[in-house]
Amino acid sequence: MPPPKDVVKIAIQMVGAIPQLIELQQTKPLASVLKDVCDAWSLPNAERYALQYADGRQTYITESNRRDIKNGSILRLTTSPDQEAEQLYNGIQSKNVDVKTDSLKKLASLSQDVTFAQEFISRNGLKQIYSIVEEGNDTGEMLAHTLKAFTELMEHDFVSWENLSTVFIKKIVSYVNMNAVDASIQQLSLSILENMVPTSRLLFELVKKEVTLDRLLTHLQATNAELQLKAMALLIALLLSATDAERRDMMDYLREKNLRQFIHKNIIHSSEPLGDEMAHYLYVLQSVSLNLCEHRMKTSMDPYSQEQRDLLQSLRQTAFESESEVPAGSFSTERRRSLCAKEFRKLGFMNNSNPAEDLRRAPPGLLALDNMVYFSRNTPNAYSRFVLENSSREDKHECPFARSSIQLTLILCEILHIGEPCSETAQAFYPMFFGQDHFFEELFCICIQLVNKTWKEMRATQEDFDKVMQVVREQITRTLSLKPTSLELFKTRVNTLNYSEILKLRQTERMHQEETLAAPVLELREKLKPELLELIRQQRLLHLCEGTLFRKISSRRRQDKLWYCRLSPNHKVLHYGDVEEGVQSPPIESLTEKIPVADMKMLLVGKECPHTKEKSSGKQNKDVLELAFSIVHDLEEYCLNFIAPTRYEFCLWTDGLNVLLGKEMTSERTQTDLDVLLSMELKLRLLDLENISIPDKPPPIPKPPSNLNFCYDFSHAEQ
């Protein structure tokens, strides 16, 4: 093992002085290093100074983070954090408005640094910030700097949110509820409340009471995109912290206020592109809304519940209305029971004498009954046509409505992930979800008619039930993958994708598979693989050179911290650094941090990553684990931690980093890309052999001729 890198060559700047170029001994105490630097510039009282990075976040250098200093780093000699904290602590108490404002502005900037924040908080600095907010009536620049400083200080988790006074919280709430207040102050106030809500039940109840849903809806309708985003963030935080009953009430109220339609029209179809953070919030809103179905999905039917039995009977009465109108006295009890059983059999219940038994399975439980009732009440013509049409078919060819509905409900729950926790990073939502009230029920109505259509196209019998439902699942998933913008468009596309189209797609896939299994083709595949793998390697490295925007996710689900990472064009250095929202592709010069590829030792993924181990809760989200990876550098002592925005980015980055480390690409995307490229290359090479069967063995090579006299002798060529 090579010796530890205990010496780094760095530059140290100071205003009005010639920079020093020094070799920093990492084993030497930082106080001694500072003494030497101050002596070189003839500065007394070295303990009053500190080193910090000259670029980027300008973090203070401490004994705990000094190992992050790289060769070529530029540091700056500046006032020590404790001195700076003392000056600003006094400055924010100044009677001079200009001094106070400037101090708060500097405080907001320096509070991002954990060392400074610790020093300032230890002087009871937060108490002064509380006072400025609680006692002040200013709503201008001074307040904006105060709230920004407070947000940054609380981000370090040195102080619990539960320590905040009710007066302070109500003051923050008042800024959200005011009309005549600067938008930046409202954004900061909304952000503070968003971070506060998940920390305790008491704070949730206070914020929910003081900030009404109507007020949040007003902010959502603002033209200011950042204000709109912060209002959505607080709404999502309230929904996630609420109990099931509270969440249901809140969603019912939002439905009354047409929130979905507003989002569909003014956010999804806005002229401005949808940002990643808003896409995540829309995904969460969709997930929370669909998960309201979870209780009914997991509840079995109670045969002794009069309400549930009435719903079941309503299905029969709606379908066979004329037959049910016969007066009760016309038939004996036994005859009436026999007639009901016959009608429930026509409805497609397996247990026609006691149809409640069919709904005892959970999931889908009572959700299947709800869907059937909704279909019968909201589209009675389609419901009657489905039931009566199948009643007139031969017994073995009839499509069982109830059995199909129960299975279809289960399929839709699985496809839409009902009952699963929200991902902390996902952004995949269905635009059509926001264009329709009762989305799940309306989707069911379209799909149950699709079941009947597909059943007829397949000329299915009862034995084919599972095959039909498998085809229907495929029709739904293939159509949803196209991201239709409305249910009408979904209906059109899913009906176009009929059984014959599914067969064609399957046949194409099967033929391709059979083609590629012939022995000569397999041999050709193996010969092509190295060249195509090299092409994939180059693509991965090119993607790393273009770079990706990553998010820092804390335990409070905050997603407003962004950083960018990209590989240098010569593939020798990884550059990274913090960026602001809206920056798509920052120039490589603006990314101040760097890791030489030669210093990279190992790639960790999933549970092996240090930043996933730090997450204390056992509730660690599965999605975050699937997207986490870390680069170990400098002899396994330090890690650069990532959480990829998507699984696609995770695959490309882990593959690219493995290429840089000289290892095999291991992601599932590599295999997918290789299969696609091999398929294309093989098709091109086998074009001339279309409709010609390829033998398993090559034709035999003929024996050499007895002599080679037939060959032309070039030695006798004309002179």
Structure, explained:
By secondary structure, the protein is α+β, with helices and mostly antiparallel strands. It folds into 4 domains: 7-79, Ubiquitin-like (UB roll) (Roll), CATH 3.10.20; 84-283, Leucine-rich Repeat Variant, CATH 1.25.10.10; 298-320 and 334-509, no CATH class; 530-671, Roll (PH-domain like). The chain is built from 30 helices and 11 strands. Strands 2-1-4-3 form a 4-stranded mixed sheet. A hairpin with a 4-residue loop joins β10 and β11. α2 (81-91) runs antiparallel to α3 and α22 crosses α23 (465-480). The longest helix has 28 residues, at 519-546. The radius of gyration is 34 Å and the shape is flat. The N and C termini lie far apart (71 Å). 29% of the residues are buried. The model is unreliable at 616-620 (pLDDT under 50).
